[in-house]
Write a structure and sequence with these properties.
The chain has about 180 residues and is α+β, with helices and mostly antiparallel strands. The protein is built from three helices and twelve strands. It folds into two domains: about 120 residues, 2-Layer Sandwich (Alpha-Beta Plaits); about 50 residues, SH3 type barrels (Roll), CATH 2.30.30.30. The strands form three sheets. The chain has a five-stranded antiparallel sheet with strand order 11-10-9-8-12, with no helix packed on it. The chain has a four-stranded antiparallel sheet with strand order 2-5-1-6, covered by helices on one side. The longest helix has 16 residues. The radius of gyration is 23 Å and the shape is elongated.
Amino acid sequence: MRSQWFVIHTLSGQEQKVKESIEKRIKTEEMQDYIQEVLVPMEKVAEIRNGKKTVTSRKLYPGYVFIDIVLLDENQKVVEKPWYFIRDTQGIIGFVGGDRPTPTSLEEIETIKAQITASEDTERPKVSFEVGETVKINDGPFLNFSGVIEEIDPDKGKLRVTVNVFGRNTPVELEYWKVEKA
């Protein structure tokens, strides 16, 4: 029997508690042979609070926990011990797929893990911007100026904003967190 990735539906806001509960109980209930990994995909999000940049973690898939588990035998029948171990965990609604859970493809899991790794390097802004949108600058030398977004560089987390200074349009490059929607 080999392990496969499955998705567990949890109560809202209970994802981390479910993950920790499963990880704590693996040793005490001797589930090491069945459960390989438990994953709650998160990304870093930057936002401005009280004039300061703060970085928080946000769940990529709220209400879901991914688990690498031996759940199905060679005949695709549910193995009872890990099934009831998961079903008896507080905060869990059930497997996605109900009584006949379907494994998640390895490609999907690799994509999710790549998303997590990419998020560790750069934090994303909590708000998304569009070209042509008017924003108010809330940090730096152009504090309280308004401007129009001309260009967005999501890789660097920067915006090119045209600001009217002394009657002339001036392009300014700013980080996402230095502006807010006007």
